[in-house]
Design goal:
InterPro entries: Aminoglycoside_PTrfase (IPR002575), Kinase-like_dom_sf (IPR011009). It holds the Pfam family APH. With 163 residues, the chain is α+β, with helices and mostly antiparallel strands. Among the domains are: 61 residues, no CATH class; 43 residues. 37% of the residues lie in helices and 13% in strands. The chain has a two-stranded antiparallel sheet. It has a two-stranded antiparallel sheet with strand order 3-6. A two-stranded antiparallel ribbon has the order 4-5. The longest helix has 20 residues. It is globular, with a radius of gyration of 19 Å.
Length: 163
């Protein structure tokens, strides 16, 4: 039985691996980030498995500006999204213990109000392993793993928040 030599992590290799699996290019992503916020574009030190994440802008504000740039969604796409959310909530309503049903019912009843909110980029899978914090000053420096991100109603990303 031979011991495997642990591989050393290489951000450059991780980025190359990611772009081999997609039709986008690193330069097109970097150009887009720079077009949105200006300044320099620098890949984060640890990349997500299914995403390419960068710091961008004069103050590395790419993430901070993304939610401010609401997206126009055509009515048929908005209706399809509404139907998907309603269907998902109705499936949840039928499945969990009854103690969760009042919250799910309230969510179903609130869908019209939720869909009146601005449509923005939402992460859809944010968790503690997706948040990067500066060890010296505890400031947020990035959020990674945007593979499930989509345009959706503002605030719908909060489903991943832990109490």
């Amino acid at each position: 039985m031979s011991a495997e030599t642990p591989q050393e992590y290489s951000v450059d290799e991780e980025i190359l691996y990611f772009f081999r699996k997609t039709s986008a290019t690193q330069s097109s992503c970097d150009d887009y980030a720079q077009e949105l916020v200006g300044g320099s574009v620098v890949p984060v030190t640890v990349q997500g498995v299914c995403s390419y994440t960068v710091y961008a802008g004069p103050n590395h504000e790419f993430l901070g500006l993304a939610w401010k740039n609401f997206q126009r969604v055509n009515p048929s796409d908005r209706e399809a999204m509404f139907q998907r959310y309603e269907s998902d909530l109705r499936q949840l309503f039928a499945a969990p213990p009854s103690c969760f049903r009042p919250v799910i019912q309230q969510s179903i009843e609130s869908l019209l109000a939720i869909f009146s909110l601005l449509m923005v980029l939402v992460h859809k899978d944010v968790g503690v392993n997706d948040v990067m914090v500066d060890a010296d000053d505890n400031h947020l420096v990035g959020v990674i793993d945007w593979a499930e991100a989509e345009i959706g109603p503002f605030g719908t990303n909060l489903h991943s928040r832990n109490s």
